[in-house]
Write a structure and sequence with these properties.
EC number: 2.7.11.1
Oligomer: single chain
Strand order of the largest sheet: 1-2-3-4-6-5
CATH superfamily of the largest domain: Transferase(Phosphotransferase) domain 1
CATH class of the largest domain: Mainly Alpha
Radius of gyration: 20 Å
CATH topology of the largest domain: Transferase(Phosphotransferase), domain 1
Number of domains: 2
Distance between the termini: 45 Å
Enzyme class: transferase
Family: Belongs to the protein kinase superfamily.
Shape: globular
InterPro entries: CK1_Ser-Thr_kinase, Kinase-like_dom_sf, Prot_kinase_dom, Protein_kinase_ATP_BS, Ser/Thr_kinase_AS
Strand content: 15-25%
Number of helices: 13
GO molecular function: ATP binding; protein serine/threonine kinase activity
CATH architecture of the largest domain: Orthogonal Bundle
Order of helices and strands: HEEEEHEEHHEEEEHHHHHHHHH
Helix content: 25-40%
Structural class: alpha+beta
Number of strands: 10
Largest sheet: 6 strands, antiparallel
């Protein structure tokens, strides 16, 4: 796939009669990202491309979602989209490095609690904005959150990669429908419900976010050494909550405990969770805004790149343990009893 795209797009190519390709920024699970400049003089942007397909296009889904998120302060701004020869493209604003890369650049490979709380507030706001337009993300992880500078000069977190997003807000529904589903997401960060092939809800995005915050704060997750869907899922269910979150504020850990008791049809009080994070930040005297120390320009950054970690069912299924696995997830409150 990559070679096909590179045969069509090279440095100096003019796409859509407007976008001059400057260099390749990266590649993801279903496409590539290039740095482009508008020959009309409006600036430099990121262009995400994929080979045109007859099946459902992940890129077209991203276009739809970005347009819906036009008013969100935590989404890249949609600029343009279209077709060029055998590819489809999406042009959007560029952002800075992702949280995974930024964590690795810190002295101890972890953020302090003040940064974690401010990161958490903005990430929850980003997921709230997505949920309010009727979508769940299904691939929340550190590399899908980047930091940029807003028009007001504030460090702002942006939510990326909607290739695996699922629309639940149709036919008057305000929440996802319960049932079974194939695995979606990234094994390391996916909600334990994803391992049980359950239909995912808004709370699963937030559970994955809490895994993300735990890793950003602790530098690791209790299941870091595990491999495979089955073993990772069990490790998440059996993980010691103190090992997972360390000395994070108790009120934050309590939010996680409430989330794991929810089903996919339960509503999520984003505002209440944000208030809890704000109160915790105030109690410990954390700054009122995100203030990470990082020295890089947006022109030199890695722009939004989809990783689309949808692993095939063939590679994930363990037929010898399938019956045991399903019975383990039969009771949705079992995980909460272990906390």
């Amino acid at each position: 796939m990559d070679m096909e795209i590179e045969e069509i797009i090279t440095v100096g190519s003019l796409i859509g009669g407007r976008w001059l390709v400057q260099r390749r920024l990266g590649k993801g699970g279903y496409g590539m990202v290039f740095a482009v400049e508008d020959i009309k003089g409006t600036g430099k942007f990121a262009m995400k491309v994929e080979i045109r397909k007859r099946t459902l296009s992940k890129l077209r889904k991203e276009v739809f979602i970005l347009k819906k998120l036009a008013r969100s302060t935590h989404a890249c701004r949609y600029v343009d989209s279209g077709r060029h020869e055998q590819i489809e493209y999406l042009v959007m604003t560029k952002t800075g490095h992702d949280l995974h890369e930024l964590r690795k650049k810190t002295k101890n490979k972890r953020f302090d609690i003040a940064a974690i709380l401010q990161i958490g507030i903005q990430c929850i706001e980003a997921l709230r904005d997505l949920h309010e337009i009727g979508f769940i993300h299904r691939d929340v992880k550190p590399s899908n959150f980047t930091i940029g500078i807003s028009k007001s000069g504030k460090q702002t977190i942006y939510l990326l990669d909607f290739g695996l997003a699922f629309q639940f807000g149709t036919y008057g529904r305000s929440h996802p429908r319960s049932g079974r589903s194939s695995f979606h997401g990234t094994l390391r960060y996916a909600s334990f419900n994803a391992h049980g092939e359950k239909a995912l809800g808004m709370h699963d995005d937030l559970i994955a976010l809490f895994y993300t915050l735990a890793e950003l704060y602790r530098g690791h997750l209790p299941w870091s050494g595990e491999e495979g869907k089955y073993h990772l899922g069990l490790a998440k269910l059996k993980a010691d909550i103190n090992d997972m979150f360390g000395d994070m504020p108790n009120e934050i850990v309590d939010v996680y405990k409430r989330l794991v008791r929810k089903s996919c049809e339960d509503p999520v009080d984003h505002g209440g969770i944000i208030e809890t994070f704000v109160a915790a930040a105030t109690r410990i005297g954390a700054p009122g805004r995100l203030n990470l120390n990082f020295a890089h320009s947006l022109d030199d950054s890695i722009a939004s790149v989809s990783t689309a970690s949808l692993v095939s069912e063939k590679n994930l299924k363990d037929t010898r343990k399938k019956k045991k696995w399903k019975s383990y997830f039969h009771f949705p409150r079992r995980h909460s009893k272990m906390l």
